[in-house]
Automatic annotation (TrEMBL):
Gene Ontology molecular function terms on file: glycosyltransferase activity
Name of protein: Glycosyltransferase involved in cell wall bisynthesis
Keywords recorded for this protein, A-Z: Transferase
PANTHER family: GLYCOSYLTRANSFERASE (PTHR12526:SF630)
Glycosyl transferase family domain: residues covered: 176-327
Origin organism lineage: Bacteria, Pseudomonadati, Bacteroidota, Flavobacteriia, Flavobacteriales
SUPFAM superfamilies referenced in this protein's UniProt entry, alphabetically: UDP-Glycosyltransferase/glycogen phosphorylase (SSF53756)
Length: 359
């Protein structure tokens, strides 16, 4: 047991009862495990209205204001004291971490989930990141990437001198809540994503626009998610006459059951650090069509074994893959779920994050 150490977890993440995904299950599992070990845990989220899933967590909501500023203000005004600070989805190497250390925090752990643009940062951003690494990395004790790709980019962005305090902890999922596919559900595709331009969903719509109507009329594509790019995606859907093929379903808290109703997941992203939807889909025995550079950031998709790959942004390649799936020229019949369950499970993720508290 610990000596009543107190943890603050600050997340630039809005909690939503209609979207209970991998990170939500991790937060609850982490909170439970830390408390079992004698830690006191308090959570700071971008936004939260109480709902049952999070009923056992002590949560403070920034009400969609800046969560870093909210945390520092609350700590200062209420004279709160924390031994350990853990962050998720925050920018790395900023003045926030210097200020947080000034409030008496002994150990700071940052988990980097942040995607990078496929084309890389402009020179001005590269130089700013290098300067921030020099100025503020000293106030961070451990950098955690959610994939090897992320770890490499932490070092590239902020300085290779951080190598010794930068490591990887893969995200995981609660495999017990996912329903496995038992039939093919031919030509029924699912896409789950935050709706923003970097997710590449516009490339899917362009790919569909290239296909003959006798192909697209056999397809159903359900898009689950919300985001600022939804209006543009709906405009393109109407422009390409795809309204009867592409359906926008909003957020869902039941994706763990829904994957099994589809033949393939489509993930045309331009930039990912982990990509929960791919792991979740594979656990459900649903193969994946995704991008070589971004969607396959974990290198878990093997061509013709558990999915098909195309170059990010190349909607002509995507169109060819989709056409061949509909024609029956591309098929996947193997059960590839067991290795994914072993490598990317929630318990493993929680335990590895908890172990960081002892370092």
């Amino acid at each position: 047991m610990t000596k009543n150490k107190k943890i603050a977890v600050v997340c630039n993440y809005a909690l939503n009862p209609n979207r209970i995904g991998g990170m939500d299950r991790f937060y609850v599992g982490y909170d439970k495990k830390a408390k079992e070990l004698g830690y006191e845990v308090e959570w700071y989220f971008l936004d939260y209205e109480p709902f049952y899933f999070y009923s056992r967590l002590t949560i403070f909501s920034a009400n969609n204001q800046n969560v870093e500023s909210f945390f520092l203000k609350k700590v200062n005004q209420e004279n709160l004291r924390y031994d350990i600070l853990v962050t998720h989805f925050l920018a790395l190497c900023t003045s926030f971490f210097k200020k947080a250390k000034g409030e008496g925090i002994q150990q700071t752990i940052v988990v980097d989930h942040n995607p990078r643009p496929l084309e890389g940062f402009p020179l001005s951003k590269i130089l700013k990141n290098k300067a921030k690494g020099i100025l503020y990395s000293r106030y961070i004790d451990q950098f955690i990437g959610v994939s090897e790709y992320t770890r490499k980019h932490i070092l590239k962005d902020y300085g290779f001198f951080l190598d010794k305090k930068t490591t990887v902890v893969y995200n995981g999922i609660d495999t017990s809540v996912f329903v496995k596919r038992i039939r093919e559900n031919k030509n029924k595709f699912i896409l789950t994503s935050h709706l923003r331009e970097s997710k590449g969903i516009q490339d899917l719509l362009k790919a569909l626009s290239l296909l003959e109507s006798n192909i697209t009329n056999q397809m159903q594509i359900d898009v689950f998610g919300e985001g600022p790019y939804e209006g543009e995606l709906r405009r393109l859907t109407n422009k390409f006459n795809l309204a009867g093929i592409v359906n926008y379903e909003g957020s869902s808290s039941n994706l763990n059951k829904l994957y099994s109703e589809y033949a393939f997941l489509i993930q045309p992203s331009h930039g990912e650090t982990f990509c929960y939807s791919i792991i979740e889909s594979l656990v459900c025995k649903v193969p994946v069509v995704t991008t070589l550079e971004a969607g396959n950031v974990l290198s878990v998709i093997e061509e013709n074994t558990n999915g098909f790959l195309f170059n990010a942004g190349n909607y002509q390649q995507l169109a060819t893959i989709l056409k061949n799936i509909v024609l029956g020229d591309l098929k996947i019949d193997k059960d590839f779920s067991l290795q994914i369950e072993k490598d990317f499970n929630l318990e493993k993720m929680v335990n590895e994050h908890i172990q960081l508290l002892c370092k």
